[in-house]
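Weekly sync, protein design subgroup
Attendees: M.S., D.O., the rotation student, P.L. (late)

Item 1: inverse folding check
M.S. brought a backbone from last month's batch and wanted to see whether the design step gives back something sensible before we order anything. D.O. pointed out we never logged the input encoding, so this time it goes straight into the notes. Structure tokens as presented (198 positions):
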């Protein structure tokens, strides 16, 4: 199972990067973000779990779930500031760095919550992450005007930039919020089973 999860995560990484780079508007770019931070990262963390390359095993003192939740929160919100978003639209290396930051922050968070001794804190970290992802998705989706003017030249043919932005906010809300919420529920179920068995 771990090997399959690792291969799935590795296969998803280039898919996310491709969606972020192609001229698919903000929806494509957001899909790339969500694949990196909320889909590929948990698969990679599961595949690396308890192995020699597991980040939580490499840096046990630095990877507490709540600390990694804050790292992920700062990473996601920082890269969605309009000035940074505009910069990534004009710089391929910066776009690559953005995707790498999303993947790294997601991997650190998911890796930390999968540690057996961090399950309870991991549940809280994932639920808080679900909340902040949902909030950012709502803010992007309900903004009354385009927040990312530099992205206009990449929007899909015939799609209004505001609609493109609104759809990307919905995508973040659904994928980002659901991924972390479901992860928190799965961790809670495993913790309850473990305590029931004890």
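Designed sequence read out in the meeting:
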């Amino acid at each position: 199972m771990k090997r399959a999860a690792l291969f799935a995560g590795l296969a998803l990484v280039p898919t996310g990067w491709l969606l972020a780079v192609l001229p698919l508007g903000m929806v494509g770019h957001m899909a790339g973000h969500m694949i990196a931070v909320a889909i590929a990262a948990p698969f990679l963390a599961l595949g690396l779990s308890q192995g020699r390359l597991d980040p939580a095993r490499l840096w046990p003192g630095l990877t507490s779930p709540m600390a990694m939740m804050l790292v992920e929160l700062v990473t996601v919100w920082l890269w969605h500031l309009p000035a940074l978003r505009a910069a990534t639209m004009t710089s391929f290396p910066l776009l690559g760095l953005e995707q790498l930051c999303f993947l790294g922050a997601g991997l650190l968070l998911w890796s930390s919550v999968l540690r057996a001794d961090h399950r309870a804190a991991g549940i809280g970290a994932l639920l808080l992450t679900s909340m902040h992802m949902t909030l950012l998705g709502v803010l992007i989706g309900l903004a009354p005007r385009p927040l990312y003017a530099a992205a206009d030249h990449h929007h899909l043919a015939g799609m209004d930039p505001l609609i493109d932005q609104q759809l990307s906010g919905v995508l973040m809300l659904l994928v980002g919020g659901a991924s972390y919420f479901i992860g928190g529920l799965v961790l809670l179920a495993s913790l309850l089973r473990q305590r029931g068995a004890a």
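Discussion: Residues 119 and 190 are 9 Å apart (CA to CA). DSSP finds eight helices and no strands in the chain.
Action: P.L. to compare against the previous round before Friday.
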